[in-house]
Design a protein that fits this description.
Strand content: 5-15%
Oligomer: single chain
Number of domains: 4
Strand order of the largest sheet: 7-6-5-11-12
Number of helices: 22
Structural class: alpha/beta
Distance between the termini: 35 Å
Radius of gyration: 30 Å
Helix content: 40-55%
């Protein structure tokens, strides 16, 4: 009905334009919202107030003109002007029943729209360094990014999901060196493991597989590896200098074989991440390699453009981007003293590449710890002459996992973390995805394992799924009692649904397309979660208060049509969130 009222207002606005009461070139689009107080009608618009300034007219007078030009619709009982110029719409009692037929006719497509048709959006999310398995902190970004992309697609946008693979740089070199040192242990060499290496058991597993594949081919004597290497931190040295020296020694001693070790780690971890995400209901159209930017010369090209635009300068042997001129708190290094480009240099090239691909909107979903990174990326796009208004950065707080009162550590380097796969095995995919998007992405989140696995009404995902299962149970009882069901008879008699609980359900069902649109455009999947909880609560209340399989066939079929509409909308919302809809619980 919201869309219908907006269409009627648009016709009224066109009529006023033809009368020269409204400027012909005005592009204002009417917007209608539900009223919070039923005394003010069912829907309201502030269109007359929005027209007041461009029309240089009194908003109440404009409201009167809009109402006079409004096309007739049998579902509208009355239209009133309120306050400074609000227009309130009151619907007749039969209008609310239409939603049941609409849901029945549309089925899985109920709520979908084409608001974003013709617009291409890229959503880049997770993009965790392939230096270890995904942990529960990454899970929230995965669930949130997937839901944002799916919501945008549901309202008509063409969406491309992308994972940016950080397969270049120092962290990957630390991983490769860690794998080789564990490989040497398999060969019988005794080399102290660096305090700054990756210590997870997955590193040892990769090393064992490498040894099974090549035997001792990559073995080098421990004394050659350790010769003149700076002391590590536990021995009074500097852990950063120690690991950097080990990386350089590893590359020197292995030569061309270094890339074999590097690729062994990258491929296995990346494949594990890909599989983990797919099992979590997350898939991508594109896995974009950072190394490809370097190999193609894109990083060098981006830096050259910055230089030509006058935003690069040299200082202390390094090259700096003068990002402070464009809103950043300080300038940033893009090429180190040793000639190596920084992560930021790759990010500049990557975002330039995104702009060149012609998206209408570019959405980056980052962990909240990257907040300080936003101004420098925007500064780079501005310096390169790109339209940085296309870039939207959404921040996600990492979820904190608790076991009782003990916080679980999340250090990938130390190998002490709970993986996303372990979480799924413990609480299930449905509960994990539901809990991850239950709150605003920027809000802090403690993941309650006990609640997520409980089979009670306190568990929100269980509560919503149980509503779907309960409708299925009623339909099974219908079959068991050999009672007929006449869908057209139920549609003809929807006006028999006069109970307060039934009116509440009808109103909530009609809100679904609006919630979907708002959740998509505001990038807030938690709005859909809240809606599903409201719908489930309305249904459970109705279920506990009334019988569905009554002797009166017309009333029975009307009620069955209503609860089947509830079942359909619950399924539509849950399926959109990649959450299952069980028929029995």
């Amino acid at each position: 009905m919201k869309q219908t009222l907006e269409a009627l207002l648009e016709q009224a606005l066109d009529d006023l334009k033809s009368q020269a009461a409204v400027p012909q070139d005005l592009t204002l689009k009417p917007s209608v919202e539900r009223t919070r107080d039923p005394q003010h009608g069912d829907f309201a618009t502030n269109l007359a107030m929005m027209l007041a300034k461009p029309c240089k007219s009194n908003p109440r007078q404009l409201a009167e003109q809009l109402i006079a030009a409004l096309p007739q619709d049998a579902r509208i009982e009355k239209v009133e002007i309120a306050g400074p110029g609000f227009i309130n719409f009151y619907l007749n009692s039969t209008a609310q029943f239409e939603v049941v037929q609409q849901i029945h006719d549309a089925g899985q497509r109920y709520g979908l729209s084409q608001i974003g048709a013709g617009k291409k959006v890229q959503v880049e999310f997770v993009s965790a360094n392939p230096t270890g398995p995904l942990h529960v902190g990454h899970g929230r970004g995965a669930a949130y990014g997937s839901a944002v992309a799916d919501l945008l697609e549901a309202v008509g946008f063409e969406v491309e999901r992308e994972y940016y693979v950080n397969d270049a740089g120092r962290q990957m070199d630390i991983l490769a060196t860690s794998i080789w040192l564990r490989y040497l242990e398999e060969c019988g060499e005794v080399v102290p493991f660096p305090s700054n290496g990756y210590r997870g058991e997955y590193v040892r597993e990769i090393a064992v597989q490498l040894h099974n594949s090549v035997g001792n081919e990559y073995r080098r004597p421990a004394e050659l590896i350790l010769e003149d290497i700076p002391a590590d931190e536990p021995q009074g040295g500097d852990k950063e200098k120690h690991i950097d020296a080990l990386i350089e020694r590893t590359q020197t001693l292995l030569g061309s074989q270094y890339d074999d070790v590097f690729q062994a780690g990258l491929k296995q971890i990346l494949e594990d991440i890909r599989q983990d995400l797919e099992e979590f209901g997350v898939s991508y159209q594109n896995w974009f390699s950072e190394r490809s930017l370097m190999d193609s010369g894109a990083v060098e090209n981006a830096l050259q453009k910055l230089d030509e635009a006058g935003f690069l300068y040299e200082k202390e042997g390094a090259k700096w981007f003068a990002s402070s001129k464009l809103g950043d708190e300080k300038d940033r290094v893009v090429v180190r003293e040793n000639g190596q480009t920084t992560y930021f240099a790759s990010d500049i090239a990557y975002h330039l590449n995104k702009l060149e691909r012609g998206y209408d909107e570019i959405i980056n979903i980052w962990g909240a710890d990257h907040h300080g990174y936003i101004p420098r990326v925007r500064a780079a796009l501005k310096a390169l002459g790109g339209d940085n208004s296309k870039l939207k950065i959404l921040l996600v707080q990492f979820a904190i996992l608790w076991r009782g009162e003990e916080k679980v550590p999340m250090s990938t380097r130390a190998g002490e973390f709970v993986t996303l796969r372990q979480l799924r095995n413990e609480v299930g995919k449905d509960a994990a995805r539901f809990f991850y998007v239950m709150r605003k992405s920027e809000q802090h989140m403690d993941f309650d394992l006990k609640l997520a696995t409980s089979k009670s009404n306190e568990n929100p995902v269980y509560y919503v799924q149980y509503a779907h299962a309960r409708v299925c149970s009623v339909l099974r009882q219908l079959d068991e009692k050999n009672l007929p069901r006449d869908i057209p008879l139920g549609m003809e008699n929807l006006n028999r649904l006069t109970e307060e609980h039934e009116s509440a359900l009808l109103t909530t069902l009609s809100k679904y397309p609006e919630v979907l649109e708002r959740a998509a455009l505001q990038h807030e999947p938690h709005q859909l979660i809240h809606y599903l909880r409201e719908l489930a609560n309305n249904f459970h209340t109705y279920y506990n208060a009334h019988q569905f399989l009554v002797d009166d066939a017309a009333l029975r079929d009307a009620r069955l049509n209503l609860i089947c509409a509830v079942k359909q909308v619950l399924a539509n919302g849950l399926n959109l969130l990649k959450i299952n809809t069980p028929e029995a619980m």
